[in-house]
Amino acid sequence: MSELTKKLFTLAFIREGNRLLLGYKKRGFGQGRWNAFGGKVEAGETPEEAAVREVQEEAGVMVVGGVEKVGELLFTFEGDPTAMHVMVFSARGYTGTPTESEEMKPQWFSVDSLPYSLMWPDDELWYPIYLRGGKFRGRFHFQGHDKILSEKLEEVQTFD
Ligand SMILES: CNc1ncnc2c1ncn2[C@@H]1O[C@H](COP(=O)(O)OP(=O)(O)OP(=O)(O)O)[C@@H](O)[C@H]1O
Questions:
Q1: DSSP-based helix, strand, coil % in the chain, nearest 5
Q2: Domains along the chain?
Q3: pTM of the complete model
Q4: Which family does it belong to (predicted)?
Q5: Spacing, Cα 40 to ligand 1 middle (Å)
Protein backbone atom coordinates (compact mmCIF):
# COMPACT_ATOMS: atom_id res chain seq x y z
CA MET A 1 0.00 0.00 0.00
CA SER A 2 1.39 3.40 -0.90
CA GLU A 3 0.97 6.06 1.75
CA LEU A 4 -1.09 9.17 1.15
CA THR A 5 0.44 12.43 2.30
CA LYS A 6 -2.22 14.87 3.46
CA LYS A 7 -1.88 18.61 3.07
CA LEU A 8 -4.17 20.93 4.97
CA PHE A 9 -6.13 23.67 3.19
CA THR A 10 -8.94 26.06 4.04
CA LEU A 11 -11.96 27.22 2.10
CA ALA A 12 -14.03 30.05 3.57
CA PHE A 13 -17.37 31.60 2.70
CA ILE A 14 -18.61 35.13 3.12
CA ARG A 15 -22.40 35.08 3.00
CA GLU A 16 -24.89 37.86 3.41
CA GLY A 17 -28.47 36.63 3.38
CA ASN A 18 -29.24 35.37 -0.08
CA ARG A 19 -25.90 36.28 -1.61
CA LEU A 20 -22.58 34.54 -1.51
CA LEU A 21 -19.18 36.02 -2.29
CA LEU A 22 -17.07 33.89 -4.62
CA GLY A 23 -13.76 34.65 -6.29
CA TYR A 24 -12.62 33.96 -9.82
CA LYS A 25 -9.25 32.20 -9.47
CA LYS A 26 -6.81 34.01 -11.73
CA ARG A 27 -3.78 31.79 -11.17
CA GLY A 28 -2.55 28.61 -9.51
CA PHE A 29 -4.57 25.58 -8.54
CA GLY A 30 -8.14 25.81 -9.84
CA GLN A 31 -7.29 28.68 -12.19
CA GLY A 32 -10.28 29.79 -14.29
CA ARG A 33 -12.85 28.56 -11.77
CA TRP A 34 -15.08 30.36 -9.27
CA ASN A 35 -14.47 29.25 -5.70
CA ALA A 36 -14.66 30.38 -2.11
CA PHE A 37 -11.46 31.80 -0.59
CA GLY A 38 -8.65 29.71 0.85
CA GLY A 39 -5.26 28.12 0.59
CA LYS A 40 -2.64 26.21 2.49
CA VAL A 41 -2.49 26.28 6.28
CA GLU A 42 1.00 27.59 7.10
CA ALA A 43 3.23 26.26 9.90
CA GLY A 44 2.23 27.69 13.28
CA GLU A 45 -1.27 28.65 12.15
CA THR A 46 -4.57 27.11 13.15
CA PRO A 47 -6.95 26.34 10.26
CA GLU A 48 -9.24 29.11 11.57
CA GLU A 49 -6.37 31.65 11.49
CA ALA A 50 -5.43 30.53 7.99
CA ALA A 51 -9.04 30.91 6.83
CA VAL A 52 -9.23 34.49 8.15
CA ARG A 53 -5.85 35.36 6.56
CA GLU A 54 -6.77 33.92 3.16
CA VAL A 55 -10.09 35.81 3.06
CA GLN A 56 -8.20 39.02 3.76
CA GLU A 57 -5.47 38.27 1.18
CA GLU A 58 -7.74 37.05 -1.61
CA ALA A 59 -11.01 39.00 -1.15
CA GLY A 60 -9.74 42.10 0.66
CA VAL A 61 -12.26 41.86 3.50
CA MET A 62 -11.75 41.28 7.25
CA VAL A 63 -13.61 38.49 8.98
CA VAL A 64 -15.50 39.75 12.05
CA GLY A 65 -16.59 37.36 14.82
CA GLY A 66 -14.45 34.50 13.59
CA VAL A 67 -15.29 31.57 11.37
CA GLU A 68 -17.49 28.55 11.98
CA LYS A 69 -16.49 25.15 10.65
CA VAL A 70 -19.12 23.82 8.26
CA GLY A 71 -17.37 21.03 6.42
CA GLU A 72 -14.43 18.75 5.95
CA LEU A 73 -13.42 17.50 2.50
CA LEU A 74 -10.72 15.16 1.25
CA PHE A 75 -9.66 15.40 -2.38
CA THR A 76 -7.44 12.85 -4.08
CA PHE A 77 -6.29 12.82 -7.69
CA GLU A 78 -5.47 9.71 -9.71
CA GLY A 79 -1.69 9.21 -9.77
CA ASP A 80 -1.03 11.86 -7.11
CA PRO A 81 0.15 10.65 -3.68
CA THR A 82 -0.81 13.93 -1.99
CA ALA A 83 -4.35 14.31 -0.70
CA MET A 84 -5.87 17.74 -0.05
CA HIS A 85 -7.59 17.90 3.31
CA VAL A 86 -9.84 20.95 3.20
CA MET A 87 -11.48 22.55 6.24
CA VAL A 88 -14.51 24.53 5.12
CA PHE A 89 -15.60 27.56 7.12
CA SER A 90 -18.26 30.24 7.05
CA ALA A 91 -17.40 33.73 8.34
CA ARG A 92 -19.77 34.99 11.07
CA GLY A 93 -19.40 38.50 9.69
CA TYR A 94 -17.10 40.72 7.70
CA THR A 95 -16.11 44.31 7.21
CA GLY A 96 -14.76 46.08 4.16
CA THR A 97 -15.46 46.01 0.45
CA PRO A 98 -14.48 42.99 -1.63
CA THR A 99 -11.46 43.96 -3.71
CA GLU A 100 -9.69 42.15 -6.50
CA SER A 101 -6.31 40.63 -5.57
CA GLU A 102 -3.55 39.09 -7.68
CA GLU A 103 -5.10 35.69 -7.07
CA MET A 104 -8.89 36.24 -7.04
CA LYS A 105 -11.55 38.50 -8.52
CA PRO A 106 -14.45 38.61 -6.01
CA GLN A 107 -18.08 38.86 -7.05
CA TRP A 108 -21.43 38.41 -5.27
CA PHE A 109 -23.78 35.70 -6.55
CA SER A 110 -27.34 34.89 -5.61
CA VAL A 111 -27.36 31.50 -3.83
CA ASP A 112 -30.05 30.47 -6.33
CA SER A 113 -27.86 31.07 -9.37
CA LEU A 114 -24.33 29.97 -8.55
CA PRO A 115 -22.06 29.36 -11.57
CA TYR A 116 -21.68 25.62 -10.94
CA SER A 117 -20.58 24.86 -14.51
CA LEU A 118 -17.59 27.15 -13.91
CA MET A 119 -16.71 25.69 -10.50
CA TRP A 120 -15.05 22.49 -9.25
CA PRO A 121 -17.40 19.56 -10.06
CA ASP A 122 -17.70 18.56 -6.39
CA ASP A 123 -19.11 21.95 -5.45
CA GLU A 124 -22.65 21.40 -6.71
CA LEU A 125 -22.84 18.23 -4.61
CA TRP A 126 -21.97 19.74 -1.23
CA TYR A 127 -22.86 23.45 -1.55
CA PRO A 128 -26.60 22.69 -1.13
CA ILE A 129 -25.90 21.22 2.33
CA TYR A 130 -23.91 24.30 3.34
CA LEU A 131 -26.46 26.70 1.84
CA ARG A 132 -29.30 25.29 3.94
CA GLY A 133 -27.24 25.56 7.12
CA GLY A 134 -25.99 21.99 7.34
CA LYS A 135 -22.54 20.55 8.06
CA PHE A 136 -20.90 17.87 5.96
CA ARG A 137 -18.00 15.53 5.48
CA GLY A 138 -17.00 14.24 2.07
CA ARG A 139 -14.29 12.69 -0.05
CA PHE A 140 -13.87 12.90 -3.79
CA HIS A 141 -11.43 11.03 -6.01
CA PHE A 142 -10.67 12.80 -9.30
CA GLN A 143 -9.32 11.86 -12.70
CA GLY A 144 -7.70 15.05 -13.87
CA HIS A 145 -9.55 18.12 -12.63
CA ASP A 146 -12.92 17.56 -14.34
CA LYS A 147 -14.02 14.01 -13.60
CA ILE A 148 -15.09 12.57 -10.25
CA LEU A 149 -14.33 8.83 -10.20
CA SER A 150 -15.75 8.15 -6.74
CA GLU A 151 -17.37 10.15 -4.00
CA LYS A 152 -18.72 9.87 -0.50
CA LEU A 153 -20.69 12.66 1.11
CA GLU A 154 -22.58 12.75 4.39
CA GLU A 155 -24.30 15.39 6.44
CA VAL A 156 -23.06 15.48 10.04
CA GLN A 157 -24.14 17.20 13.25
CA THR A 158 -20.61 17.76 14.64
CA PHE A 159 -17.01 17.01 13.67
CA ASP A 160 -15.83 15.30 16.89
C1 LIG B 1 -10.86 19.32 -6.09
N2 LIG B 1 -12.00 20.07 -5.74
C3 LIG B 1 -12.01 21.25 -5.07
N4 LIG B 1 -13.20 21.80 -4.83
C5 LIG B 1 -13.29 22.97 -4.19
N6 LIG B 1 -12.24 23.67 -3.75
C7 LIG B 1 -11.03 23.14 -3.96
C8 LIG B 1 -10.84 21.92 -4.61
N9 LIG B 1 -9.53 21.66 -4.67
C10 LIG B 1 -8.90 22.69 -4.07
N11 LIG B 1 -9.79 23.57 -3.63
C12 LIG B 1 -9.49 24.83 -2.95
O13 LIG B 1 -8.65 25.58 -3.80
C14 LIG B 1 -7.76 26.37 -3.04
C15 LIG B 1 -6.36 26.06 -3.49
O16 LIG B 1 -5.48 26.80 -2.75
P17 LIG B 1 -4.11 27.34 -3.36
O18 LIG B 1 -4.39 28.54 -4.17
O19 LIG B 1 -3.37 26.23 -3.98
O20 LIG B 1 -3.40 27.73 -2.03
P21 LIG B 1 -2.49 28.98 -1.69
O22 LIG B 1 -3.28 30.23 -1.88
O23 LIG B 1 -1.94 28.73 -0.32
O24 LIG B 1 -1.43 28.78 -2.78
P25 LIG B 1 -0.27 29.70 -3.29
O26 LIG B 1 0.36 30.22 -2.04
O27 LIG B 1 -0.95 30.73 -4.15
O28 LIG B 1 0.55 28.72 -4.05
C29 LIG B 1 -8.01 26.04 -1.58
O30 LIG B 1 -8.89 27.00 -1.03
C31 LIG B 1 -8.69 24.70 -1.67
O32 LIG B 1 -9.54 24.47 -0.58
A1: 15, 45, 40
A2: 5-156 (3.90.79.10)
A3: 0.96
A4: Belongs to the Nudix hydrolase family.
A5: 7
